[in-house]
Inverse folding.
């Protein structure tokens, strides 16, 4: 499935780091940064999360809510948030059903091996729930700047 700018963002319901079920539609009326990343506590994902944390005031000042999503469990998310003092919600998508909706669960190659995994992608969703932008070439250390650009 390919998602395009201008179409409605697929709604989903999944647990956050506390195991509470949240839906994308809960955020109607707000701009949402929905960022898919491979794994908690890995160097690139930590750099990306910390860049968003360090720029959270600029993002919220522009009306954005930040939601991170990976296939990690709520418990792993809690540890990642605590370790890096992350001020935003992380969504647990252990069965990669939300990844499938957004087309971010794909065949990847690493060191000659093929496997299914998360393609790091960020979707900017407007107040009406439409895709306003898609950032497919994420710069982990400058991600907030990409969003605000």
């Amino acid at each position: 499935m390919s998602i395009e700018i201008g179409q409605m963002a697929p709604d989903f319901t999944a647990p956050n780091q506390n195991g509470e079920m949240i839906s994308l539609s809960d955020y109607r009326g707000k701009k949402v940064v929905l960022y898919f990343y491979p794994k908690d506590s890995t160097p690139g994902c930590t750099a990306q999360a910390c860049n968003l944390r360090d720029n959270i005031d600029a993002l919220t000042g522009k009306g954005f809510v930040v939601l991170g999503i990976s296939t990690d469990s709520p418990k792993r998310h809690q540890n990642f948030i605590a370790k890096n003092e992350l001020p935003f919600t992380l969504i647990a998508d252990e069965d990669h059903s939300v990844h499938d909706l957004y087309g971010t669960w794909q065949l990847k190659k690493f060191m000659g091996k093929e496997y299914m995994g998360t393609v790091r992608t960020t979707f900017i969703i407007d107040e009406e729930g439409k895709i306003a932008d898609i950032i497919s070439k994420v710069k982990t250390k400058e991600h907030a700047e990409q969003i605000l650009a």
About this structure: The domain at 32-148 is CATH 3.40.30.10 (Glutaredoxin). The helical segments are 43-54, 56-61, 74-84, 97-102, 143-148. The CA atoms of residues 25 and 93 lie 17 Å apart. The mean pLDDT is 97.
